[in-house]
């Protein structure tokens, strides 16, 4: 019971001082509380916590730290999906008219080549020969030569040619005409009356690619061939340029 009384006395001293007082501090006070502590140094007393004190003032701001090294740049992200199409904007105002441009240069006019000739007389031959024409209907460009009966191209291009033939009004009258280019046969005409005396006429044509200097003419085959014409001009030879190179 004596120990319990002493313990109660210690608790009272603690409640009065709101803390545990050490034996050293109590030596300055010679009260009963110091004597209780001195006599019971091995007793541990647990007191209730005191009230929370007021918040202290904010301390000074610390010095700014040294910036760290820049990190490695990350890989680019994946391309996102295409967004929805926006609404169509309003039509803008019409701008002012531009300045008038300088007049351009016209391309050179394409060359014109065209000829048409006719024959008025009969021709009978025992050997192959060039058929000549004595009437010049037109010769634009001057590429046809009356004396030789030949057309000579002055430049390259695409040309159209046509020619006609006619038999004499006699039995067994016949002819064989050929359109020639540089000595090579292009197209031909052939008529034969047989036993009946009559006139028979025909025509043929061709489109030829020519180079400068190429020659084109109509040729009558040998072996007694005969072509007929008179002032009515049944035998003709014509040509013109379609497109120049």
From TrEMBL:
InterPro entries: C1q_dom, Collagen, Collagen/C1q_domain, Tumour_necrosis_fac-like_dom. The keyword Zinc does not apply. Transmembrane segments: none annotated. It is found in: Secreted. Keywords: Secreted, Signal. Its main location: secreted. GO terms for cellular component: extracellular region. Residues 1-23 form the signal peptide. Residues 85-97 have a biased composition (Basic and acidic residues). Residues 108-245 form the C1q domain. Residues 49-110 are annotated as: Disordered. The keyword Cell wall biogenesis/degradation does not apply. This is Complement C1q-like protein 3. It comes from Branchiostoma floridae (Florida lancelet). The lineage of its organism: Eukaryota, Metazoa, Chordata, Cephalochordata, Leptocardii.
């Amino acid at each position: 019971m004596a120990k319990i009384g002493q313990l109660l006395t210690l608790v009272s001293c603690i409640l009065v001082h709101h803390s545990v007082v050490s034996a050293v501090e109590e030596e300055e006070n010679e009260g009963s509380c110091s004597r209780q502590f001195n006599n019971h140094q091995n007793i541990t007393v647990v007191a209730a916590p005191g009230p929370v004190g007021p918040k202290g003032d904010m301390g000074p701001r610390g010095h700014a730290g040294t910036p760290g090294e820049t990190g490695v740049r990350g890989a680019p992200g994946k391309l996102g999906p295409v967004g929805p199409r926006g609404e169509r904007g309003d039509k803008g105002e019409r701008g002012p008219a531009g300045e008038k441009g300088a007049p351009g240069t016209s391309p050179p006019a394409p060359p014109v080549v065209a000829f048409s000739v006719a024959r008025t007389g009969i021709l009978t031959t025992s050997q192959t020969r060039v058929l000549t024409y004595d009437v010049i209907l037109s010769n634009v460009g001057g590429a046809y030569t009356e004396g030789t009966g030949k057309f000579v191209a002055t430049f390259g291009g695409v040309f159209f040619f046509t020619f006609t033939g006619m038999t004499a009004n006699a039995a067994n009258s016949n002819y064989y005409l050929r359109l020639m280019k540089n000595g090579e046969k292009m197209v031909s005409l052939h008529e034969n009356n047989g036993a009946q005396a009559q006139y028979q006429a025909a025509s043929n044509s061709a489109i030829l690619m020519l180079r400068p200097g190429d020659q084109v003419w109509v040729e009558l085959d040998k072996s007694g061939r005969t072509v007929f014409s008179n002032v009515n001009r049944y035998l003709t030879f014509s040509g013109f340029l379609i497109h120049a190179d």
